[in-house]
Amino acid sequence: MKMKRLVGPLLCLTLLSAVAVAHADGWQKYVSEDGSFSLHHPAGWQVTEEASVIAIEAGDGRQISIIALPYDSQKSAQEHAHQMISLLAAGNPGLSASNWRTEDDGSAAYAEVSFTDGGIPQAGDIVVVKDADAGQALWFSYSAPAAGYDRPAALEVLQVVMGSLAPGRGSQPPTGATLSPEAQEIVNSFIFVLEFSLGQPLSVESEQLVARELTRDWGGADDPAQDLAMYVPLAQQVMSLDQEPLAELQRDLHGVLIEWLNESDPNDPVVGMVRERIAAGEQIVAAGQPALTAVAAQAYAELTALSELLHREPQAGIGDIEADVVAEIRGQLTDAWGGFSDEDRRDVLTLPGVWGVLRHALLLGPQEQQEQARTIIVGLTTVPAAETPPAPQTGAATAGGGAGDDIRDQMTRSFLVGETLRMAQQHTFNTWRWSMGYCRGPMGF
Q1: How far apart are CA 104 and CA 10, in angstroms?
Q2: Helix, strand or coil, per DSSP, at residue 228
Q3: The pTM is what?
Q4: Pairing verdict, β 136-145 and 37-42
Q5: Where in 81-156 does DSSP place strands (E)?
Q6: What share of the chain is helix, strand, coil (3-state, %, to 5)?
Q7: Could you read off the pLDDT of 177-219 as tens digits, one per residue?
Q8: Fewer CB within 10 A of the end CB, N or C, for the chain?
Q9: Phi, then psi, of 230 in degrees rounded to 5
Q10: Among 113, 5, 145, which residue's Cα sits nearest to residue 68?
Q11: Cα(47)–Cα(31) distance, integer angstroms
């Protein structure tokens, strides 16, 4: 899908003015197949790009659609919208639009829609934008099953996606509202305890999903963050216990987690994600003795991606890891698995534990531990001097498509196996005792 010119963050601000932008922790960057534009969408949702349509799906019925409409300079945004609705209604006679709102100059239109998909009533919101200068009209929509449809949340997501569109790789996550340091510590501690209870680290995308769902309604007088404050001392307790009481605590927490899963709504996105992670611990993505699991491949790819990123951007954080880079590395590992020695394969299978420990040391540890973790991660990969990025010049543009992307593309990637990986494992497990919970726990490796 190509866009002649991308609509900026002020797009349809008057139509969506009541919507508050969510914090950035739950957003993931997508770069178009031809690299011409990028956007941010809810973490964990899957993107499909075909011709003039981009579909972003959550897997539970929620979907965002972006469509480049046939452009007519004589028609307003609302007329473009009506034309598209007529086309869609030909295949779905029950489709209807109501509560229209439009810009006075005809540049934008908003409506609520309802329709049926597979016998299930659906609700949705659409925004159509006409950009006369670029000669294009774009359709943005959010839809989900009508039962329990959350319109404020839908409009919030839609505004973020629309406002994040940028040329090349330049899309930035929303920065409107942020959590206080205390609330962020609660989120990090909750995720740490969840992963420790599970016995395996979540993917970065899954962590972002948990953070987004956990904080969706925070910020009022009865801030639910306070109800979860117990997770801060609980995380500290996990990090300080000796091995025997640590193992007992993990068994207890795992039992509570399974009980919660059995009692919760199976359509809840976090419940579904946790169930998928449990299954992923047994999912084989490359055969061998031993075989490569989906969890190990994901951990390997995320750790490698962050290590490479830190060579280019020393202050980068976990949230800066790009999903397309992770997917690229994961595919390379899967393809190369057959050529690894048995020892190298066993080493790779320990990486979910190593990565989980290092990630939480970066998020929850004191400054000294954060620096230790960062040093270990940087040391896992080597960027030849010829590929080391030059110091940025004053005033130089840093948005997508810059030198960092070229360097990454030129880099000859070496697989994380052998003595370098084993030294990192030893250092990690010797430094953080609770790391063994990832290796000997209920779902350990």
Answers
A1: 16
A2: helix
A3: 0.48
A4: unpaired
A5: 96-102, 108-117, 120-131, 136-145
A6: 50, 15, 35
A7: 566 778 888 888 888 888 888 777 777 777 777 887 777 666 5
A8: N
A9: -60, -20
A10: 5
A11: 10
Of the candidates 164, 185, 162, 186, the one whose C-alpha atom is nearest the C-alpha of residue 173 is 164
What DSSP letter does each residue of 349-371 carry, written as one string? HTHHHHHHHHHHHHHHS-HHHHH
CB of 358 closer than 8 Å to CB of 303: yes
181-198 and 243-263 helices, crossing angle to 10°: 90
Q: What are phi and psi of 222, to 5 degrees?
A: -100, 65
Would you give the distance in Å from CA 116 to the centre of its chain?
A: 29
**Three-state SS at 435:** helix
pLDDT of residue 266: 81
How much of the chain exceeds pLDDT 90, in percent? 17
Q: Which is more confident, 367 or 445?
A: 367
Distance CA 82, CA 88 (A): 10
Q: Tokens in use for 289?
A: 């003795």
Give the CA radius of gyration of the chain.
23
| Amino acid identity for residue 128 in this structure | V
As a whole number, mean pLDDT of residues 342-370 equals 77
CB 444 within 8 A of CB 435: no
The yes-or-no verdict on residue 281 having pLDDT over 90 is no
Residue with the two structure tokens 């810059």: 402
Identify the burial level of 262 via C-beta atoms within 10 angstroms of its C-beta, where 0-12 means exposed, 13-18 middle and 19 or more buried. Answer: exposed
Report how far apart, in Å, the C-alpha atoms of 197 and of each of 157, 192, 202 are: 30, 9, 11
Residue 103 confidence (pLDDT) above 70: yes
Looking at residue 237, its pLDDT comes to 80
Rounded average pLDDT over 165-170: 83
Distance CA 277, CA 296 (A): 11
**pLDDT tens, residue by residue, 43-74:** 878 899 988 899 999 888 899 999 999 999 99
End-to-end CA gap in the chain: 42
Determine the average pLDDT of the residues in 128-147. 90
Q: Answer yes or no: are the C-beta atoms of 362 and 334 closer than 8 Å.
A: no
Residue positions counted in the chain: 445
Q: Are the CB atoms for 126 and 114 separated by under 8 Å?
A: no
Split at pLDDT 50, 70, 90, the class of 113 is very high
Output the CA torsion sign for 175, 176, 182, 184: negative
Q: Are 157 and 42 in contact (CB under 8 A)?
A: yes
Give the per-residue pLDDT at 312.
83
